[in-house]
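note to self — DONT lose this again. spent like an hour looking for the file last time. sequence + predicted structure for the chain T wanted, 209 res
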Amino acid sequence: MMSKLNQDILRYSLLKRCLGDIDIINIVLFSEFSSLGSGFKTRRSLEVIVFTSEESTRYGSYKFICLFLFCSLLLAGIESLAKDLTSAVDGQNISFLDAARSGAYAKERNVLSIVFLKKGSYSAFVELHIEQGPILEEEGTSIGIVTAIAAPASINVDFEGNGGHAGAILMPNRNYAGLAAAELALAVEKHVLESGSIDTVGIVGNSSS
């Protein structure tokens, strides 16, 4: 279970990541605590970029097309993604562009393509992120550097079976879909734990009957 401290931090994750970036630049360049000295100039400009919906759950997948990370992908000039977004709709059939306009975005006709950047426009990206797990907190460490990120993959599995009368249908004639699904969940856990990897996670998500 996530600690109360971590729960409180996550509530302000996005706000902290936006304002925190600005605060870091102020400290590095202008603060009296900066070790760089007055008049320091960077070799490259330092900019803060705020994405409004980088990892959208509302438009995360449209017609089996993965639309995650679409803000950074649009910056990279992925034209096919811009085309997909113009026709993407959510579960209530509201288009991506209509939703953007309702939030005071997408005022220009070419709103998706105007963010395309030329190759080499940025030398590097650094993202400030609240830890979403317990490791740093448990070790009493205030900050860490990420060396790898999660690369999730998922599949949908359908189980079909039959139960029947609790007493009249004997075990040889029973074919419970739920038990097969439970065996799969245990097999996934067993496979991951025996893989020897310290950071591989395997879970079985939502199920319905």
